[in-house]
Amino acid sequence: MGTNRFEAFSDGVIAILITIMVLEMKVPHGETIEALKPIIPVFLSYVLSFVYLGIYWSNHHHMVHACQKVTGPMLWANLHLLFWLSLVPFATGWMGENHFAAMPSALYGVVLLMAAIAYWILQQLIIASQGPDSLLKKAVGGDWKGKASPAVYAVAIPLAFWSQWVSLGLYVLVALVWLVPDRRIEHVLVGDET
Amino acid sequence: MGTNRFEAFSDGVIAILITIMVLEMKVPHGETIEALKPIIPVFLSYVLSFVYLGIYWSNHHHMVHACQKVTGPMLWANLHLLFWLSLVPFATGWMGENHFAAMPSALYGVVLLMAAIAYWILQQLIIASQGPDSLLKKAVGGDWKGKASPAVYAVAIPLAFWSQWVSLGLYVLVALVWLVPDRRIEHVLVGDET
Amino acid sequence: MGTNRFEAFSDGVIAILITIMVLEMKVPHGETIEALKPIIPVFLSYVLSFVYLGIYWSNHHHMVHACQKVTGPMLWANLHLLFWLSLVPFATGWMGENHFAAMPSALYGVVLLMAAIAYWILQQLIIASQGPDSLLKKAVGGDWKGKASPAVYAVAIPLAFWSQWVSLGLYVLVALVWLVPDRRIEHVLVGDET
Amino acid sequence: MGTNRFEAFSDGVIAILITIMVLEMKVPHGETIEALKPIIPVFLSYVLSFVYLGIYWSNHHHMVHACQKVTGPMLWANLHLLFWLSLVPFATGWMGENHFAAMPSALYGVVLLMAAIAYWILQQLIIASQGPDSLLKKAVGGDWKGKASPAVYAVAIPLAFWSQWVSLGLYVLVALVWLVPDRRIEHVLVGDET
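The joint structure predicted for all components is written out below.
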């Protein structure tokens, strides 16, 4: 099985997720600027999730690019990843509508953590299938981002019950770290040393 | 007519279905963990349907892969399959919101049964179009999974009025049986004997 | 501009339309079979619209297949067609929720009529771009289906105020006529005479 | 990274956006023609946004066509554009449901302005990546449309508080200017002088 349909299906699901999140932002009834106020936290959480899904789409793209053949387990590891990503709109909406309350902020972190673990599993399956000379293994190198992110989420989740703003700050921090262009895979693919 | 656009359209519909099911999981109003409680059955039914749609996507992919040419009847048999799959989010939502009550659990089985029959019709059409040396026929072999699944659903539907938990157990069982990697088609495609 | 992205975008929109129509079928609150009763007309109108969108998808596919190059006007004629198709879920929902009342049944016909006209415009643009030896022109031949359908809709719309069942019968009739395999384009494409 | 998946993802998001806007047009409860009256402004704003998203899809297509390689910054500039486009259904719904009140009409302009700026950034990134002989630079030429549109939006936004009809007239005007077939890129691509 080639990677084409695999990619197309993943892209489709992520494109739909990133778009239906907007549906959680209900059109307010008033016509004044005040009517928009209660939507601000929903909007901010939407922005954060949009960035996260954008990061997943971009990284997923690079990872699949470094993979030649899709096996059955990869297919299910991918569906597992998409499952957790599909909960992002729900977690985003709950967090936004409750103005970043402790419990929803913690749950948001749980969804991010599970998605990060699912991504890591998929990555390991692809690396294992490529053998000792794995292109992807060379590309991700020490993979400190992939290792640090779940650790940060795991810390941020319980912290939410002490101060959710610290947790949210950590979620934003992880997103920013990933936003910094990650040329590792690109470099290896074009022949540079990491 | 090639299989490309046929595949892309089917993928698109399944990707959308698997994603919009989450919309049935309404964001709760409270911010406590208790607010999530009434959503648990909705969530569990969502997980089951996610797995079912994942199975259909994966099997559909392999089946179409073993098919070279799409005829008019295949096109409509495929739309027929997509029609029953499109009712999965509705049946899932009804079952989840009523905490797996008897009637919704039975209806869920009816949708699964009709989808299984629609899938079988599409498979037969492809096999028939390929003549006696059908690659797909060799690939599915005795097709005991394809034959047993509708039979199990047919038993599970009336059982729901006696105990819906038995029916649900059967639905989960069938899903698990399909989840076990089914290398039949892959084997034939790479030249192994079944 | 090739036809690939043109096709993919049209497929995407039709796949989304065919799927979001199910969202109009709200999950009922009761758990008994009676709770499903008020949904029956919504379900029936959903089935009719599903078939119509399936027909449009299938015919659109064949038409674009007979077209080599997409021009600017074709692109907008296509968006015009997609616009009217995008109103199908709304018209379907309004008709279904009002149990096929006269006015919604007439509006449903108006949407079908406008979509048929938009389809005809797109077809004429493609034929015109292909010159006197147009493959598509030969393929559609006298195009009696394409000419008769809008005429039937135009008759069915005012009839809805006398008896909506006659109008609905006519909508179903047109759908059935199109469902009969239309091998015209396929024949010409493989070299047969029409 | 080639432009294929880049294009497919953008198309997917725009196709979903253009379609889910219809969901904002809630099915009315009455069955008379009067029941449709309050929907008329929602419908009109839907038509305007449909045309705008159609223009963005068409121009995006031509722009990406003139681009051979997608870099990391382009990818994020594209997600930035899709972000603002994803707010179009929200802004459309708010404007339509409040019958084109001043504040929602101004916000609609803000979303159009931000999308136009995001589009311009993406265009500049592609041009910069192509060096002095940029095909896209030659294609867009003086780019008066791309420069004038944000300026008109910037004027229309504050004007909404004086008369929203003037603002809306300006939004419609810009859409009409873009609807006029823009053969600039096509011409350059086939070798004509601009």
